Amino acid sequence: MPAGSAFGLASALRPQQALPVRQVLAVVVGNAIEFYDFVTYAFFAAQIGRAFFPSHAPGASLLASLATFGAGFLTRPLGAFVIGRMGDRVGRKPAMLLSFTLIGIAVVGLPLTPSYASIGIAAPILVIGFRLLQGFALGGEVGPSTAFMMEAAPLHRRGLYISLQAMSADAAVLVAGLVGVGLASVLDESALDAWGWRLALLVGAIIIPFGLVLRRSLGETLSVAENARSHGDSSPWRGYGKIALPALAMLAAATTTNYILDYMTTYAGSTLGMPTKVALGATVAVGLSGVICDPISGWLSDRFGRKPVMVVPWIVLLLAIFPCFWVIGHWRNGPALYGVCTLLAVASTLSTATVLVSITESLPQAIRSGGLSMIYAVAIAIFGGSTQFMAAWLTRISGSALAPAWYLIAAVVVGLLAITRMAETAPIRNLQHARGNAEATPLQAGWPPMEP
Fold it and tell me: Which of 67, 266, 279, 369 could bond to 143 as cystine, CB 3.0-4.6 Å?
């Protein structure tokens, strides 16, 4: 890079105005509601299975419930194509408004669906329909919202701001865990089966109207006129495959890791036989670890680069997986479960929060929303939708409580190999490289304040 370009990048890295809190909330709220609803579904998969898929065969209702959970991932690529491309052609804001409206319909519809005992076969059909609609909406959510966050954030704080997407998801996991523990503490098993799980899902619906109001107040970061000219040329899509393939593998690994951690509540209860209120505490540990570590990951990646922050924690995770699953399988108590979940969540989160940052920065603006949406949707559709089902199925056919550990180890290995194929995208590291030494203009170490 020429000296003039290095000077220009250094100028761009000077502190810029922070995003107002209301804008940050408007963007991350979609990600939060996605994970709250999906994780709550996973917590109460057994109860939902008994409500909509009654069966006398041991474990069959749970597997049917988890399969329906996975059905929501089938329409993600379609939503990514439609809404994600809309974000590149019409604007980030209208795409985010559409996706969030559809999410709201699905989030409210599923818990209000009567049980199989009340309306028969119509019940599972409606449930599957709402899951498909939600998957379509969520497939188009991540691209426009993450593109908006990257384009609106100060250049030297992209990592931190995009990591707030991951933090909102983990905050939703934490809230879902607290709601689940609270309901399990005050309700007996029959009440949880009858209506407790419905109440837990409806709690997430409270945020829908507030999210819509916040998103209507957003500005627009996409220049539609400029992008229209870009779409007349195929150049933005050149080299997309070189980015898409390793990015897909990285997100597949991150997704598998996240959903195995989210599955720990069902695993602890159904496989290890722990009481519901103890098992639900695993999600609190996972969510709290993520809320703390997500912004740390983003901040570190702004300071030291994306690749080191992705690689080191995942190596620690790889080494910890098998011993951790052995510990909870051997002791089968609350302290072992919470300690293991905390360790795995910290190692996972410190890496996965930066994966989305690296991929988003690698894509040109003209295809950023649609390209990211498609990569994310395919990874989620294949691995997010199947991970919990596969963990339950492998455990069942092998008879081993360690089956999910081997599945997780394979995913992390794939993710680490994929990272080696990605270029470093952090502005600070590119500036250091341009100057040919490690004494680039230092960035302020403090976290940027957010305007109220």
Answer: 369
Question: Helix/strand/coil (H, E, C) string of 138-202?
Answer: HHCCHHHHHHHHHHHCCHHHHHHHHHHHHHHHHHHHHHHHHHHHHHHHHCCHHHHHHHHHHHHHH
pLDDT in tens, 70-82: 777 888 899 999 9
- Looking at residue 285, its amino acid is A
Contact 95, 224 (CB under 8 A): no
| 8-220+239-435: CATH number | 1.20.1250.20
Question: pLDDT tens for residues 217-269?
Answer: 888 988 755 555 555 555 666 667 789 999 999 999 999 999 899 889 889 99
CA distances from 366 to 4, 49, 243, 244, 247 (A): 25, 43, 15, 15, 18
Query: How many other C-beta atoms can be found within 10 angstroms of the C-beta atom of residue 119?
Result: 13
User: What single-letter DSSP state applies at residue 334?
Assistant: H
Calculate the dihedral angle through the C-alpha atoms of 282, 285, 288, 294, rounding to the nearest 10 degrees. Answer: -90
d(CA 88, CA 166): 22
Q: Consecutive 10-residue runs of the chain (452 residues): their mean pLDDT?
A: 45 59 88 81 78 68 71 87 94 94 90 89 87 89 93 90 90 85 85 88 88 90 64 61 92 94 89 88 90 95 94 97 96 95 96 93 91 92 84 91 95 96 83 51 39 37
Average pLDDT, the chain: 84
Q: Where are the domains of the chain?
A: 8-220+239-435
Tokens coding 123: 């019940």
Given a contact cutoff of 8 angstroms between Cβ atoms, the answer to whether 450 and 19 are in contact is yes
**18, 449 in Cβ contact below 8 A?**
yes
> What is this structure's pTM?
0.81
| Encoded tokens for 18 | 């922070």
Tokens (6 digits) for 183? 């309901």
Among candidate residues 425, 294, 287, the one with its CA nearest the CA of residue 360 = 425
Please tell me what DSSP assigns to residue 157.
G
Residue type, 84: G
- In Å, what is the CA distance from 421 to each residue of 239, 242, 249, 274? 13, 9, 10, 42
CB 395 within 8 A of CB 271: yes
- Tokens encoding 274: 């722990």
∠17-20-26 over CA atoms, to 5°?
Answer: 135
Query: Tokens 């329906």 appear where?
Result: 68
User: From CA 37, how far away is CA 17, in angstroms rounded?
Assistant: 33
Residue with tokens 């980030």: 92
Burial of 212 from C-beta contacts in 10 A (0-12 / 13-18 / 19+): middle
